[in-house]
Write a structure and sequence with these properties.
The chain is mainly α. It has three domains: 37 residues; 28 residues; 40 residues, no CATH class. The chain is built from four helices and two strands, in the order H-H-H-H-E-E. It has a two-stranded antiparallel ribbon with strand order 1-2. A hairpin with a 5-residue loop joins strand 1 and strand 2. It is elongated.
C-alpha cells in the first residue's frame, strides 16, 4: 500500500509528551541502576560482588520472562497462521451504486464522485447521516 487510508496528524504537543515520557523513563532507569548497583558499591567497597550479582540475577530473570513471553507469542502466531491458512468464508457480493446511494440517503451521482476520489472528508449530522462531503483533489503525479 503506497498511501495510508487514515492520515494521523502529529502535532507538537503529542510529540513533546512522548519525548518527556521517554526522558522520564530513562531517568528512572538510570536512578534504579545508580541506587541498585553504584551506590551500594560506593557505600560498602568491602562488600564484594553481591550488588552486581544480585542485579544480574534479576536481569536474567527478566530476560527469561521476556523470552518465554516472546516464545508464547511466536507459537500463537504460528498456530493462527496454520489455523487460518485457508479462507473458509465466502465473500458477499458488493452493493450496486443505487443500493449504496439508497442506504446512505445520497444521490447515485455523489456515489460515483466518491468512488473517483482518493481523499475525501465526510461530515455527519447528529443522527449519523451524511451532512456533506468535501472531495480533496490531490496531485497523483510524482516529481521527476
Amino acid at each position: 500500500m503506497q498511501q495510508p487510508l487514515i492520515f494521523t496528524e502529529r502535532r507538537l504537543l503529542p510529540r513533546l509528551i512522548d519525548i518527556v515520557l521517554t526522558l522520564a523513563a530513562w531517568v528512572g532507569f538510570l536512578w534504579l541502576i545508580y541506587h541498585g548497583m553504584v551506590k551500594p558499591i560506593i557505600a560498602h567497597p568491602d562488600m564484594g560482588p553481591h550488588p552486581v550479582v544480585s542485579t544480574l540475577n534479576t536481569l536474567a530473570l527478566y530476560l527469561l520472562i521476556a523470552v518465554l513471553y516472546g516464545g508464547a507469542l511466536i507459537i500463537w502466531a504460528r498456530y493462527n497462521q496454520y489455523r487460518f491458512r485457508h479462507e473458509r468464508r465466502t465473500r458477499r457480493s458488493g452493493l450496486e451504486s443505487e443500493e449504496l446511494a439508497e442506504s446512505f440517503a445520497i444521490t447515485p451521482e455523489l456515489v460515483a464522485e466518491l468512488n473517483k476520489a482518493r481523499v475525501l472528508t465526510v461530515h455527519h449530522n447528529e443522527n449519523g447521516s451524511i451532512k456533506s462531503v468535501v472531495i480533496h483533489h490531490i496531485n497523483t503525479q510524482t516529481p521527476a
